[in-house]
Amino acid sequence: MGKPTGFMGRQRLSEAYEPPEARLKHYREFVATLNDEQTRVQGSRCMDCGIPFCTNGCPVNNIIPDWNDLVYRGNWKQALDVLHSTNNFPDFTGRICPAPCEAACTLNINNEAVGIKSIEHAIVDKGWQMGWIVPKPPQTKTGKKVAVVGSGPAGLATAQQLARAGHDVTVFEKSARVGGLLAYGIPDFKLEKTVVDRRVKQMEAEGVVFRTKVIVGSKDLPPGINNDASSFVSAEQISKDFDAVVLAAGSELPRELPIPGRELKGVYAALEFLIPQNKQVAGGKSNPINAKGKHVVVIGGGDTGSDCVGTSYRHGAASVTQFELMPQPPEEENRPLTWPYWPLKLRTSSSHMEGETQRMFSISTKEFLGENGVLKSLKTVELEWKSGKMKEVAGSEKVIPADLVFLAMGFMNPVGSLLDAFGVEKDARGNAKATTDGDGCYATSAAKVFAAGDTRRGQSLVVWAIREGRQCAREVDAFLMGSSTLPR
Ligand SMILES: Cc1cc2nc3c(=O)[nH]c(=O)nc-3n(C[C@H](O)[C@H](O)[C@H](O)COP(=O)(O)OP(=O)(O)OC[C@H]3O[C@@H](n4cnc5c(N)ncnc54)[C@H](O)[C@@H]3O)c2cc1C
Ligand code: SF4
């Protein structure tokens, strides 16, 4: 530990944001990375706990106290190596992870947690600036061929680990760009796409082949799912050409709201708005959905909803309202009760703060109302929650004007036809069935077919996708070679 009393004398310093009036004029990232001295001071707040709860709270088990200490001592290069030893892409998580490690930090019991995410962000950005992040091609090749279906964080982590183990890895992606939701869901103002692209270049130099605009298994996609594919490869062909297959195809089926008026012009699934926006920012054609001057209602309170809020403000929406079915959580958690777990509390994102977002809780939408096929308003009802059960409050119906509604109520499961094409058994929620522990983990019911990320666990987080990709890669390596030295 660098400074035993660091946490007593030093306050937590969070990363600064560009003010809303400036950042709303563009789609670039607006968070200022801590400078070297600020990062050093923040690193010194770490107590190097005997049991580092932060490491347990982190899905990739980042060795947080070690890099905090290394940064405090000015040994940035080694801090980067320790960071990369558990996480292929700290540049993604350092930007968009909700940081369960910080909720688990011992200081979070009665003080402010160590700013772990901002230290991670500073280390990896310095790594790129200094030219320390370079391709690591394998010393020897195995001659084994692996197909990875899907290029989100799970597919990328799997592919990088397997390529570094010497296998010939091909990543198939139906979209035009590599990155999954990193490229086509999460807005640029949270994660600029150059951050993904430079990793893709690194992986290409390590031998990974990316085949974009290629859809695998089945062309039968439900409406509204992004598909830029110009060619198709069948499951039979992939199974014939490769020694192992990893399905890392995400969980793309959005949760629907099948109420009267759903068909009105103006009611969209969140990604119908966010994907064209990312394409526009990347130089593509204009987003056909424009929120300028519109009254926007976002139904659903998670990351996806929040991204619709921030994007609507950048368009110049007249107002933004967000609905949440659940009751409003407390502003502060009861720490002695919740620590070291992820607490339920009111989370206000940077997007919420970019305007006067009206957030309504315990509210349900009964009907979308329109004129001549165009949305004009929605009918809502208040909910009462008792013992985990909800009941509509009689007489609480209201009509709220709305020009645009974005449905951001989460995602159900991966597209079933892909799993069916490979003959993969599904779990009760429609995800690819595979365990994460014990013999044969990450293997599906189909011979030599594995699954990782949202396809296996259901919609989740980038950091979980990276964990699953890494762990799955180890299982695939062991399956191909009899044993593996890849970390789990
Ligand atoms: C709008 C939004 C914002 C989010 N914000 C955050 C956040 O701030 N922080 C966070 O941690 N998490 C966030 N998440 C969740 C996170 O993005 C996902 O959990 C994560 O990307 C899952 O990774 P994955 O690799 O499993 O799947 P994905 O990222 O979904 O990638 C799957 C890829 O597979 C491709 N694919 C699917 N089927 C086929 C096929 N048949 N053939 C070829 N390719 C195929 C898809 O086109 C896609 O590119 C957000 C999600 C959304 C929707
Ligand atoms: S729990 Fe917090 S204080 Fe303890 S080692 Fe981890 S980051 Fe440092």
Structure notes:
By secondary structure, the chain is an alpha/beta fold. It is about 35% helix and about 15% strand. The chain has 19 helices and 18 strands. The protein has helices spanning about 5-10, 20-25, 35-45, 55, 65-70, 75-85, 90-95, 100-105, 115-130, 155-165, 180-185, 195-205, 235-240, 270-280, 305-315, 335-340, 415-420, 455, 460-480; strands spanning about 15, 30, 145-150, 170-175, 210, 215, 230-235, 245, 265-270, 295-300, 320-325, 360, 365-370, 375-385, 390, 400, 405, 450. The chain has a 5-stranded parallel β-sheet with strand order 5-4-3-8-18, with helices on both faces. A 5-stranded parallel β-sheet has the order 9-17-10-11-12. Strands 13, 14, 15 and 16 form a 4-stranded antiparallel β-sheet that branches. Helix 3 crosses helix 9, helix 5 packs across helix 9 (about 115-130) and helix 10 (about 155-165) packs parallel to helix 19. The longest helix has 20 residues, at about 460-480. The radius of gyration is 23 Å and the shape is globular. It starts with 5 loop residues before the first helix and ends in a 7-residue tail after the last helix.
